[in-house]
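We examine the record.

___
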Amino acid sequence: MPSVITGHTDNAGKVMGVHGGAGAMYWTRFATGSHLYGDWDGIEWVAFDPGGRAGLHTHSHTEEIWFFLKGTADIELDGERYHVEPGSIVITPLHSRHALVNTGDERIEYIVIEVFPPEISGKLPPRRPTEEAFTTTTAQGGAH
C-alpha cells in the first residue's frame, strides 16, 4: 500500500454560508481516517475570500488544529477574539465555540487537522489505512 497521499487545492468544493456564516468557503479533504493510522478524522484545506466567515459553532466529536498559510483573520474561541496571520496555529478543543472571519484584503488559506480526543478515540476500534482509500485517492487526484 502506498505511504504517500497526494491531493491538491484545485479539487476544492465551494460551500456557501458555512455554519450560518457569510460568503463562500472553499474546502477539500486531503485525507480521512481511512487513509491514516491513529485517531485522526481528517486533514483539510480551507479558504475564505475577504469578508467571508464561518459562523459560531461547536464540534461534538473532534478537536481541530488550524495552521494558517495565507491572509489574516479574526477567530472567536469561547468568547475570546484572536487575530491570526500566516504561521499562526489555533487549537479548538472538543465542544469549544468558535468562528472565523477573514478581516484582510486577500483570501485566507489554512490547513485543518481534525483528531478524536481520548474520550472518543478510547471507544473506537484500532484503525489502519485501507487499500480502497488509496485506490480512490489516486484515481481522483486527491482524497475527498
